[in-house]
Amino acid sequence: MERARCPLHPEAGLRAGFQATDRFWGIDEVVFHYGICPTCGAWVLDPRPTPEEIGPYYAGYYAPRELEARRALLARGPLSLALGADWIRAKDAARQLQRLGAPLRAGARVLDAGCGLGGFLRGLVALRGVTARGVDFDARCAAFAEEAHGVTVDVGELTGQGYPEDHFELITSWHCLEHVYDPRAELAEYARVLAPGGHLILETPTNGFIAQRLKGRGLFLQAPTHLYHLRPRTLRGLVEGAGLEVLKIRRPWLPSEIAGGLLMALGFSGFAPRLLFPPRPFKDRLWHALFMGLILCVDLPISALLALMGSTGVAQIIARKPRAGDPVKVMELGAVGR
Ligand SMILES: [Zn+2]
């Protein structure tokens, strides 16, 4: 184990927070502790497993059953349904850039950092004909993305890839930064390889209204693989610190946090392996039915309300790398940005 600090305020230390176990994957019952940054309110896993120690907690990712389920969906089509949330993200990212007056051109060089199985890039290629590249530390991702999506994925850490400077027109980072040991170094690398005038779209879980109440039982917390849950203002400070201009901070609607949190509050453990992909044993089919019932009756309406109020469990930041000589604008920080 090693000690950790808020990546934006390392000098501030941490105040005592709350405990959490791995309820998301259900690997074991080890108790972890999240401290709270007294300056910005970020949650920081402290102490945290070293990169050598954390391996077993990633064992459940990309299980053969999940890959099988995804292949079956792709074979059945249509692509929008097979890609699900990745398709929605690809459409939304293209729309956001259009609104900012920087529409994605065909052939634009796009890098998805922490790209997982490559579904988002496949969606963006289908929608806009971009030139897609992914990077992920899990070698299973590269094999699947190539075979199922025709997308090239480099294996390893982003900072070890040696991509050329000023190269990509768009970098996306979906639920990746919370897994990264050194977010400052990660953001500095995004800024280095982004072309001047290029954009960064970064989304990560944050401690919104529901997470503040559920703490260690929150669905999005996923101890210990989530090393941080940063506040939007923390993200903004880190992104600006890397030399990028923040254009927008959003709190996108992402249902499931409430329904999953209620299940975990009832003592349910092993959410991902037991509920996310069929086939499920009979006992888990009952839990799955309860989860879907909670999604429809409780989660969808309340999470939609939280999205309107700007207090969901995710924060998204859209930033731009200034061109030489560009005046640097500083964005007003609204309620969603705090
Ligand atoms: Zn802080």
The level 1 CATH classification is Alpha Beta
Tally of DSSP helical segments: 11
Poorly predicted ranges: none
CATH evolutionary superfamily: Vaccinia Virus protein VP39
Shape-level CATH architecture:
3-Layer(aba) Sandwich
Strand content: 15-25%
- The portion of residues assigned to helices is 25-40%
Domains counted in the coordinates: how many? 1
**Spatial strand arrangement across the major sheet:** 6-5-4-7-8-11-10
Shape: globular
Query: Between the first and last Cα atoms, what is the distance in angstroms?
Result: 31 Å
- What name does CATH use for the topology? Rossmann fold
Cα-atom radius of gyration: 19 Å
- Hetero ligands: zinc ion
Structural class: alpha/beta
- Summarize model confidence as the mean pLDDT: 94
Q: What does the oligomeric state look like here?
A: single chain
Q: How many β-strands, per DSSP?
A: 11
SSE string, helix = H, strand = E?
EEEHHHEHEHEEHEHEHEHHHE
Tell me the major beta sheet: 7 strands, mixed
How does this structure look, described?
This protein has 338 residues and is of the alpha/beta class. The chain has a single domain, classed as Vaccinia Virus protein VP39 (Rossmann fold, 3-Layer(aba) Sandwich), CATH 3.40.50. It is 36% helix and 19% strand. It has 11 helices and 11 strands. The chain has helices at 64-76, 79-83, 85-99, 119-128, 139-149, 183-193, 209-214, 232-241, 257-265, 271-275, 282-309, and strands at 15-20, 32-36, 43-45, 109-113, 131-136, 152-155, 168-174, 194-205, 228-229, 245-250, 314-320. The strands form 2 sheets. A 7-stranded mixed β-sheet has the order 6-5-4-7-8-11-10, with helices on both faces. Helix 6 (183-193) links the parallel strand 7 and strand 8. The model has no long low-confidence stretch (mean pLDDT 94). The structure holds zinc ion. Zinc ion is lined by residues 6, 8-9, 37, 39-40, 42, 234.
